[in-house]
Design brief:
With 420 residues, the protein is an alpha+beta fold. It contains twelve helices and 19 strands. The longest helix has 22 residues.
Length: 420
Amino acid sequence: MQRLASGLFIGILVTLLCVPQALALNDAQQLVVESWRLVNQSYVDPEVFETIRWKRLRQKALENTIETSEQAYSAIETMLLPLNDPYTRLLRPEDYTVMKASNEGSLSGVGLQLGHPANGDSIVVIAPLEGSPAADAGVVSGTEILEVDGERVEALGLEATAARLRGAVGSQVLVTLVPPQGQPEEISLERRTIDLRPVRTRRLRSDAHTLGYLRITQFSEGVPAQVREALEELSDKNVEGLVLDLRNNSGGLVSAGLAVADVFLDQEPIVETRNRDGIADPIQAGAGELYSGPMVTLVNSGTASASEILAGALQDDDRSLLLGDKTFGKGLIQTLTNLSDGSGLAVTVAGYLTPSGRDIQGQGIQPDRILDQPEPLNPGGDGDRWLNDAERVLQALIEQDHPGDQSQPLESTDLAPDPT
């Protein structure tokens, strides 16, 4: 009995000694705990926690000296690394500010949207931003980045690589890269303010038909309203069909992508998300569609994330043919949370499936028709062969709906064979 009492006393004493320590966490340590808690509560695959000993990772992080923000950031990054998920990541305050500015439609730098391929840890170009220094220099989707100003990207990581590419307007940055099926090369890029202009539209000239062209380069906050305005403008010009161009659209806000899908679909399924508990959440378009006419959609390897949600819905709902090349294959959704010091934490919280149940993570979406390579480097510009192909396909669709029209449909030999 005495020994039991002694053990109880010792246990109470240990508990009391630990309480002040827990309450005495400094701001930097609190940042680590806050990040761990957010991931613990919402990460899409909690089964991995047991494998990587997730609770022990928090404990190990707090065993180190963490008194500054930089020490906290390093501890958080080390803690997240075993998840092996490049999209669950810390964004330092400056990186978080840039990301928010991009989602609002403004950006400065060289105009490269970077990511990890599904089959490796290298850093590749998802897409160059239209009109950016990178696009002007001919950098294309799929290009691998090796070094920035002499620093290897393996040591930098994704966010630090992106940060090195930013800088004062007018300054130069030296990038070592490898184009697809190419050899390593160095290029010097001048940083500048980039006018994103995420929505661009115009009427396409044709002898037989009046066609509309709508290009969306990213899904930022104002895009749904801009798309509606653009379609109303095209409607006033009495367009008979629409070419939707999602090439090099690396995504952005999923909510914006869903709102744009709602413009083209009438109570049809858009996407199904699945969270950590396996709960499926199907998302369906509302009643009515702003544009219901014939359309075709251009995609390529730079079409990713939210733009793949839109492309997948249009294809599965038989709303639009997809033309071009296979998309990037990012089928994961992240939340972005403000941390207490102005930094941000991106956490993968769900995966998504197209309406027919396709999981495109690492697979991409195969278009209905593969267009001839090499791919045009100036989407929507002069000499864009893929856009010319899309126009011919769209005219053929219009003429199928109006068989009395004297124009000739597109010959099958004008396009590469459909994929098998």
